[in-house]
Amino acid sequence: LKKLHKYVGHSQEIHAIAFSPDGERVVSGGRDAKLHVWTVKDGRPLAVFAGFDHVMKACQWSADGSRVLG
Fold it and tell me: Between the CA atoms of 40, 43, 48 and 49, what dihedral angle is there, to the nearest 10 degrees?
């Protein structure tokens, strides 16, 4: 495996990660109760969803890739 990027964004450990259906984006969820979305190509952050009251132990994309579920 070749490391493409190092994404630094979560303040605590990551518990879940999922690629979008088109393979162009990644979402991750972690102990910091946030979901982070970034690009696979260059590691650029696209969005951070915060304000959850629980650890994000799972995350996924909708079938059409238009929504993130956490």
Answer: 20
